[in-house]
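With this grant's support, we have settled on a layout for protein records. A representative record follows, to show the layout.
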Amino acid sequence: MAPYQAIAARHPDGVVDLSIGTPVDPTPGLIQAALASAADAHGYPTTHGTLALRTAIGEWFARRRGVPGLDPQDILPTVGSKELVAWLPLLLGLGAGDVVVRPTVAYPTYDIGAHLAGATPVAADSLADLPADVRGRVRLVWINSPGNPTGNVLDVDALRTIVGEARALGAVVASDECYGELGWGAWDPADGGEAVPSVLDPRVSGGSHRGLLAVYSLSKQSNLAGYRAAFTAGDPDLIRSLVNSRKHAGMIVPYPVQEAMRVAVADDTHVAAQKDVYRRRRALLVPALEAAGFTIEQSVAGLYLWASNGRPTWETIGRLAERGILAGPGVFYGAAGEGFIRVALTGSDERVRAAVDRLADAPR
């Protein structure tokens, strides 16, 4: 991206960087206050997290994710969700010969995690599409719904199918759900839609969390990317094993961050307010991109618009850079992303308006 960043930087009104998904809005005050109030953290924190935090997360799962009765013992805070994605295959004991399946268009760290363990990453959206010799070696299946970068959502039936196929193979299903609160349209309860389902939802899991892990991050919904605040929950045996391994590896969430997380998951008001901010930005960018000749595909949830104008990815990135706009190249997310760009909703209101103005001035 460096050459395109240099081109965009020459724009007289500066760069509009919509290429990455890092939050730009302030961390809510009540969360900052919780972090500060826990600053006297002279003792070591627990790897498993405080009972108060795990109880609050369990209540959040019941209230927001349709997962009632989750035992606090089956919840584990993590140092952001990216480290869990990267290290989970190794912590599960995977190695040479084992296969890790991830979506065909996906976040690159799923592949990196497989390589760190010496396992083989395979891109597939259905286990049934895999050759028998590959399918028999599948040990971990990554789901990402809502998806990054495409913004797709897997409904209850689709999730239940994946869970059933993976269980038949003896494979773990890890569901990366960090955009779960950011559904739009039919997936937005505030607009009369339904909530994005979790892999731990009883309609998906059949009432048992065996072989299942839900992975969640507070970076997006609460602007906590700098806190590295996330958690996983699900299969009691898997959580118990992860807690033990992570103790020895020093993968421990600092106590002040645990307290900030506890307050964050207990408060829905700030989440709704931040979602309204993204809703307004999305309402500006979608018609602006369409008027400039782009087609928005999927993008029914999450913080990104998955767009194509029928041209090769890098040609489109170059044309936008000439207007001072940076977007994410679809090819960063796998070969199936060729021809697409990812446009993030994480620019400030002023920068999003600048992008809209520049798109209006661009030739189709």
